[in-house]
Specification:
- The protein is α/β, with parallel strands linked by helices and 185 residues long.
- The chain has a domain of 129 residues: Glutaredoxin (3-Layer(aba) Sandwich), CATH 3.40.30.
- Helices cover 34% and strands 21% of the residues.
- It contains seven helices and seven strands, in the order ααββαβαβαβαββα.
- Strands 2-1-5-4-3-6-7 form a seven-stranded mixed sheet.
- β1 and β2 form a beta hairpin.
- The termini are far apart.
């Protein structure tokens, strides 16, 4: 009977022992082990120059970040990465209603990195109600810029007209995005 009661404890100890390096998680060093961000070089991080890219929009037009950033009257660009899931729809709906109307001098690019083709990205744009919106939907069919910006679902990037990244993080409620947009030069 005593060995039956010890079985759950023994299983727990085996699971803990199988988590190599877990001691670091229980007792963290407190030091930040991420690489130091070097400002002024090309990269996806805040204070770096955004990697330039060229993608097709869902109408087959070529869109280059450097061209978008030099459009007269534009103060900056927001790049949002979508999977067209309910969470992404919630983010984009929030942006469409509470951010886009207040920033007419900002270009909003939505990057579809899951559809696999321009036609499929267009279909997703239409079926999700984003045709004729203030968003330009881009098809990242090879997930090229997804990788170059270290992005994932919901990643939101703010880039000024000089090409400098001011924000690169997951979208939450739009507060950080509004702050980043309001501080653009």
């Amino acid at each position: 009977m005593g060995s039956v009661k010890m079985l759950p404890l023994l299983l727990l100890l085996l699971m803990i022992a199988g988590c190599g390096g877990m001691v670091d998680d229980i007792s963290p060093s407190g030091s930040d082990k991420r690489p130091v961000v070097q400002c002024g070089v090309t990269g996806p991080d805040v204070c770096q120059f955004a990697p330039d890219f060229t993608l097709s929009d869902t109408l087959g037009n070529t869109v280059t970040l450097s061209s978008v950033l030099t459009t007269p009257g534009i103060k900056g660009t927001v790049v949002y990465f979508t999977m067209w899931c309910p969470v992404c729809d919630m983010h984009m709906s929030n942006m469409r209603s509470s951010i886009v109307p207040y920033y007419p001098d900002i270009r909003f690019l939505v990057v579809d990195y899951v559809s696999g083709s321009i036609a499929s990205a267009r279909n997703a744009e239409l079926s999700n109600g984003y045709a004729s919106s203030m968003f330009t939907v881009l098809a990242d069919t090879g997930q090229t810029i997804l990788g170059s910006f270290h992005a994932t679902m919901g990643t939101t990037i703010v880039i000024d007209t000089a090409g400098i990244v001011h924000m690169n993080e997951d979208y939450k409620d739009g507060a950080r995005l509004r702050t980043a947009l309001s501080t653009l030069p």
